[in-house]
Write a structure and sequence with these properties.
Its EC number is 2.1.1.199. This protein has 315 residues and is α/β, with parallel strands linked by helices. It contains 14 helices and seven strands. Helix 2 (38-45) links the parallel strand 1 (28-31) and strand 2 (52-57).
Length: 315
């Protein structure tokens, strides 16, 4: 029998994020994407007996790993299996209306990538799955085999930012007419055939962008982020902070523009002498430019290279 793999995940921008929360020892803090509990452990270490920590994740393996890791902190930790888009409701269920800090790490965990049968990785042959929450019925296989050519093109172009999206979508549809596309290996081979060899030699793994695109579409990652940032800012007490770690330009753009709008929501024309729209700033952007991993971190964790941290502080 295959030995169960431990939930491994190297926390990206660990100290920068935890420092960025500006932790009060008696405060209430939320990790919206708990993972293996790396960031969480550091936050809990800074809380006193009055402090509280709530960890949210939709992945059963993450919940199990983090529960074990954080067990030393006893009663101050509450772990909830849920998507962070339901954070407000989940917190209200346990009697919490306001918190002092929220962090969110939008990366796929090393565990999810390295566990072949989860189907996230283009480096291992496995069933096409890619579900963050395995209670969900729809999988990557459904997207690949049922989306129209135009829908696939839009997903790969918009979420993968792949300039060969049209060709990849066309090849997927042609191949699935022969027989259903069941595995990551099959999909990788189709993508390889869709991208000129001279391009493949210079741009890393040819399937990277398409796999990212399908994962984002399946788990509704950008929609969830877009729909939840305002709620998270509203949950913060004055002086409370929201720390968001993104891993590609689409996520970063959403966070950057949301923070900017919450800092300066005025919609009056620029030539108006005074504001009449009545929209009030919710706080300030702490990070004018995103915080990036340092040389040392990049050396030990190659997956951190595209990470960016942005921080917002509630007024």
């Amino acid at each position: 029998m295959e030995e169960k793999m431990a939930f491994q995940h190297t926390s990206v921008l660990l100290h920068e994020t935890v420092d960025g929360l500006n932790i009060r020892p008696d405060g209430i803090y939320v990790d919206a994407t708990l993972g293996g509990g790396g960031h969480a452990f550091q936050v809990c270490s800074r809380l006193d007996s009055k402090g509280r920590f709530i960890g949210i994740d939709q992945d059963a393996a993450a919940i199990e790993a983090a529960s074990a890791r954080l067990s030393v902190f006893g009663e101050k930790v509450t772990i909830i299996r849920s998507n962070y888009c339901d954070m407000k409701a989940r917190l209200q269920e346990i009697g919490i209306d306001k918190v002092d800090g929220i962090m969110i790490d939008l990366g796929v965990s090393s565990y999810q990538l390295d566990t072949a049968d989860r189907g996230f990785s283009y480096r291992m042959d496995a069933p096409l799955d890619m579900r963050m929450d395995q209670r969900q019925t729809m999988t990557a296989k459904d997207i690949v085999n049922t989306y129209s050519e135009m829908e696939l093109f839009h997903v790969i172009r918009d979420y993968g930012e792949d300039r060969f999206a049209k060709n990849i979508a066309k090849h997927i549809v042609a191949e699935r007419q022969k027989s259903p596309i069941e595995t990551t290996g099959q999909l990788v081979e189709i993508i390889r055939q869709s991208i000129p060899m001279k391009v493949q030699k210079t741009t890393g793994h040819p399937a990277k962008r398409t796999f990212q695109a399908i994962r984002i579409e399946l788990n509704r990652e950008l929609d969830v982020l877009k729909d939840t940032l305002d709620d998270m800012i509203d949950l913060l007490n004055p002086g409370g902070r929201l720390c968001v770690i993104t891993f590609h330009s689409l996520e970063d753009r959403i966070v950057k523009s949301n923070f900017r709008r919450n800092e300066n929501p005025c919609t009056c024309p620029s030539d108006f002498p005074v504001c009449v729209c009545g929209k009030v700033s919710k706080g300030r952007v702490v990070t004018r430019k995103p915080i990036l991993p340092g040389e040392e971190e990049l050396e030990v964790n190659s997956r951190s290279k595209s990470a960016k941290l942005r921080i917002f502080e509630r007024a």
